[in-house]
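ok so for the tutorial part 2 we go from a plain amino acid sequence to predicted structure tokens. step 1 is just haveing the sequence, like this:
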Amino acid sequence: MAKLIGLTLVGLLLAFYKNHQSSYQTRLAAFREVTPVELPNCNLIKGIETGAEDLEILPNGLAFFSTGLKYPGIKSFDPNAPGKILLMDLNEKNPAVLELEMTGNKFDKSSFNPHGVSTFTDEDNAVYLLVVNHPDFKSTVEVFKFQEEERSLLHLRTITHELLPRHVYISELLAHKIHVYEKHANWTLTPLKTLNFDTLVDNISVDPVTGDLWVGCHPNGMRIFFYDAENPPGSEVLRIQNILSEEPKVTVVYAENGTVLQGTTVASVYKGKLLVGTVYHRALYCDL
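step 2 — the prediction. this is what the tokens look like for a chain of 288 residues:
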């Protein structure tokens, strides 16, 4: 009887393990392969070799990239270098990236580990950057003022609260969902809808002209956490039109199996151009 009970327990444990493993693999889209979707003119951006995990494009065509993210369990091609904020002027015929100098007596550049960037322009057209930062794997939000003439960032302060737009879009990475909320004047939120996908949705960029959402996605997320140069993570970019309507239109604008671009996290557009960033690899600049 004891032997039978022992075998039963082993069987239950194995079943639990297999079910848990199957759920984990499903959430990470472990076995999904990418069907390529190409764009007519794409070029890797020189000077971005350790990721462009998030990016933001101003209405005047200036683009900011956060690069150099280091996080437990995530591949880093340069683990000893601090993170950076890069600038690219999309109005130039052949735009190149420039590293922005960061100034401020109380800001420790050596531990800068950026994980996301947003911009805010005030009534005087001054531009501010809000950057999620993980110094020593803690979490802060750093506020910088962009000094355009000097091409530099002045660190102002560290904050812990977030600023929210009129509609709030939240990507739930492992659940393959995007949640849509409406923000009210009293800062309360009302859930409007949830969209489901067959890919891991990461950063969301909103086109200020059309309101379309551009989403960097991981079509096979398992490969992000278990990096294999022979079988790298793919890239995928979704465009979501009319997200507040009854039937939003979702289009795969770009998809690739990792040969060119590995681990896409973000995509954003400006005047017919598409920028695509990655968690630790390179960045792409395409015509639409």
